[in-house]
Amino acid sequence: MRREIIEKIEIPEGIETEITGEIIKIKKNGKEMTRKYSGFEAKRENNFLILECKKATKTEKREIKTLAAHIRNILKGFHSKFEYNLQICAVHFPMSVNFDKAENKLIIKNFLGEVKQRTAKIVPGAEVKIEKEIITVSGENKEIAGQTAANIEKATRITGRDRRIFQDGIFIIKKPGDKD
Fold first, then answer.
1. Helices 142-155 and 58-79, interaxial angle, to 10°?
2. Which of 23, 34, 58, 94 sits 20 to 30 Å CA-CA off 48?
3. Is residue 180 domain-resident?
4. 158 and 99 fall within a common domain
């Protein structure tokens, strides 16, 4: 059954939105984030961004709701940064973790006694801070900060060993929106 779907997103003052073709640009203080959409209409009325489809299928409804959530996350990112905390757990061998700004990579040495170092890609736009056993990844874009945290966690993934014994690795311990 098809029905009309309308999503209203309030745009705070100081944030500009521009809709050209099927691209929504959101700007604040020289920073710009874009989002592409298709299959429905987007327009700006007063201080609201309106996404609507007259006869929406389930797929179109899902796409509108997803785009609305992405835009809300972009607006939150302009207000405050998204922050992920990761903890370094070294049970068997002491590992060292360093951030190489020139190559934009996190370098993990001596993981499980391996001679070869492991690396994790830091997505441009994410900030990484290492303080003893806690790695903090932050960024204005939730997707970039989350992907960087996932890359770091994935770099120390262990296969072919008993996880109950080999508990070494770098693990996400706090995500944006988690209750303390």
1. 90
2. 58
3. no
4. yes
Token pair of 1, please?
A: 């059954």
**Same domain membership, residue 162 and residue 134:** yes
Angle at 107 between CA 104 and CA 110, to 5 degrees: 175
| Rg of the chain (C-alpha set) | 21
Whole-model pTM?
A: 0.85
**pLDDT tens figures, 126-175:** 999 999 999 999 999 999 999 999 999 999 999 998 888 888 999 999 99
* Nearest alpha-carbon partner for 136 in 180, 173, 100, 94: 173
- Count of Cβ atoms closer than 10 Å to residue 158 Cβ: 13
The length of the chain in residues reads: 180
Quote the number of domains for the chain.
2
User: Is residue 179 a part of any domain in this protein?
Assistant: no
**Burial of 128 (C-beta count, 10 Å sphere; 0-12/13-18/19+):** buried
Phi first, then psi, for residue 32 (nearest 5°) are -135, 135
- Burial tier of 66 (Cβ tally within 10 Å: 0-12, 13-18, 19+): exposed
